[in-house]
C-alpha cells in the first residue's frame, strides 16, 4: 500500500469519503503534520454533500511548532443504517504559507 499526505488548502476545500457506514461511530480523529507557521482552520463534518447536514465541527490551530497535531471531533448519530458520503470541510481562518498536512482519518466507535 502507498501512503501520502494531503496538504490543507490555502483558502477553503473539502475531502469526500464515499459510502461510509456511521452506525456506532461517535467521533472522528483527524491527525495532521503541522507546518512551522501559525494557522487556524475550521473543520466541519457533513453528510452526503459539501453543504449537507453538519454532524460535527472543531477548530484546529497549528500553533507555529512542527509536529503531530490530532483533533477529536464528536459527531451526531445519523439515526439510520444507510451508507453516507462523509465530507470533511476545511476552512482557513488564518492563512499561513506552510499549512498542515492531513495524515490520517480515524472513525471511533461508541
Structure overview:
This protein has about 110 residues and is mostly beta strands. It is built from no helices and eight strands. The protein has strands at about 5, 10-20, 25-35, 40-45, 55-60, 65-75, 85-95, 100-110. A four-stranded antiparallel sheet has the order 1-8-3-6, with no helix packed on it. It is globular and about 40 Å long.
Briefly say what this structure is.
It is built from no helices and eight strands. With 110 residues, it is an all-beta fold. The termini are far apart.
- Taking the alpha carbons of the first and last residues, their distance comes to 29 Å
Stretches with pLDDT under 50, minimum 5 residues: none
Helical region count?
0
Tally of DSSP β-strands: 8
Strand order of the largest sheet: 1-8-3-6
Helix content: under 10%
Q: Label the structural class.
A: mainly beta
Give the arrangement of secondary structure elements:
Blueprint: E1 6-7, E2 12-21, E3 25-34, E4 40-47, E5 54-61, E6 67-74, E7 83-94, E8 101-109
Antiparallel strand pairs: 1-8, 2-7, 3-6, 3-8, 4-5, 4-7
Feature tags:
four-stranded antiparallel beta sheet, single chain, mainly beta, 110 residues, globular
